[in-house]
Amino acid sequence: MGRLSTPIGAYGIIKVEKLTKTARRGLSYRASAYFRMPDGSLSRVRRQAAAKDIAVVRLKEALVAMSEEARDGEIDRSARFAQVIDLYLDELEEEAILGNLTPTTVRLYRSVLKNWAIPDLGQLHCFEVVVTRCSKVVRSARKKKSYDTAKTLRAALSGACDYAVRHGAMDENPIRHIGRMSRGGEPKTVEALDADERVDLLAKLRAYALTRQTDARGRSLGSRGRLWLDLPDLMEVMLASGVRIGEALAILGSDIEPDRKTVAATHHIIRVAGSGLMRRPLRKGNQQELVLGVPEWSLPVLLRRKATAGEGPIFASFAGGFLDPSNVINRISEAMTAVGYGWVTSHVFRKTVGTVLDEADLPTTAIADQLGNSRQVAERHYRKRRIANTANVAALETMLPTSA
To answer: 317 vs 247, 313, 339, CA distance in Å?
Structure first.
C-alpha cells in the first residue's frame, strides 16, 4: 500500500533543530514542517526563536494561517453545517448581483435558514445532517408557522445541501428524501372581485383618497398625499393588464403606446439591500417581457398617466422617483381596510383578471398568455374550480326518470 499524501491545507511532522551558537546570534532553535499547498505541492515552512517552545508556537501560527488561506471556501464532511449555509448564501448573493436571482429570494432564504435551520442544524457536522433531522426541522416550521414557511425552508435547505454535495461535504442531498408536502385541508380558493365589487371599490377608493390629503392638523400634504390619489388608477391599470404590483410600478410613460392600445411590461421594481430601489430588466422571476393589449375603458387613465409621466414612471413617488412595492402594498392594505374590503390585496387584482377571462370561457392557454405564466400556474392559481361535466349533463338526464 502506497504512502498516503498529506491533505491540502495540512502539514506533516514538526521537526526542531538547535542552531549553532554564534557570537552574533546566540543560541537559537528552528522549527520546520512540510505544508501541502493548494496546487498539491509541498513547501517547507520554518520559524526560528531563542527558545524551542516559542519556535514551535510561531511555526504553528504560520501553518494555521496558511491552512485557512489554502482552504478558504472549501468544506468537507466534518465542516459545520452553519458554514455551508453561509457559503451557500454568499453564492446566492453573487447570483443576485449577476441578475440570475432576485434579492427578494435571497432575503427570504436567509431569513428561514437563520430562524429555523441554523438553530437546530447549524452546529452539526455535514455527515450528521441526515434525512430525519432535516425532516424534523421542516415539520417544526410547518407546525409552528405555516405551510408556506415550511415550503420555503425546504427549498432553501435543499439548495444548501446541494451546495455541500457539489463541494464534496455530502454524498447526497437528504432533502430529496423528505416526504412530499401538501397544504392539507380545503384547496385555496381564488379570491376575485365581481363586477359590482369592482365598481364599488373604485368609487370608495376615490372618495377615501380625498380624505387623505391633509394631516391630523388639517394641513395639506401636497405631493406627499399623491399616492392615495394614485391608488384607483393603479387598480385600473392592474385590472386592465393583469401585471403584478412590482411590474406595474416599473411601467414608464414610453411603455404605453396609445395608437396600438398596448402597454409593455418589461421590468420590475425591487429593493436591494445597500443599493435601494432598482428597476430590474424582465418581469418577476426573470420572466420575459410582455406587450399587452388593453381594453378601451383603461385608455383614459393610461393616456393621462403617460402625459404626466413623460419618460418617467407612470406611478411616481412625491420626489418623482420609483415607488417601493412594499410601501405601496402597505398603503393598499390600509385603504382596503378603511373602505370595507380588507380581504383585497394587490394580487387580488391579478386574480380578478384571470377569473374574468375564465368566466368568458377562454382557454387556460389564453389566461396564461395574459398573465405571463405557465398553463399549470394559471390553472392552479387563477381559475376557479369549474363544473367538470357541463356538456355531459343533458345525456345523463336520460338515465332515470325525473322524480314527481
So the answer is: 15, 9, 23
pTM value? Answer: 0.62
Compute φ and ψ for 168, nearest 5 degrees. 80, 10
Per the CB < 8 A criterion, the answer to whether 260 and 281 are in contact is: no
Neighbouring residues of 149: CB distance < 8 A, sequence distance ≥ 6: 112, 116, 141, 142
Cα 254–chain centre separation: 29
**Predicted confidence (pLDDT) per residue in 219-257, tens digit:** 888 888 899 999 999 999 999 999 999 999 999 999 999
Task: Give 147-188 pLDDT, tens digit per residue.
Answer: 989 999 999 999 999 999 998 899 999 999 998 877 766 556
The separation between the first and the last C-alpha atoms of the chain, rounded to the nearest angstrom, is 94
Q: Which helix (H) or strand (E) holds 32?
A: strand 29-36
C-alpha cell at 207: 372618495
Q: Would you tell me how many other CB atoms lie within 10 Å of the CB of residue 47?
A: 20
Task: Measure the CA–CA gap between 186 and 85, rounded to whole angstroms.
Answer: 35
239: amino acid identity, one letter: L
Grid cell listed for 182: 401538501
Name the burial class of residue 229, with classes exposed (0-12), middle (13-18) and buried (19+) by CB atoms within 10 angstroms of its CB.
middle
Query: Which grid cell is 265?
Result: 411590461
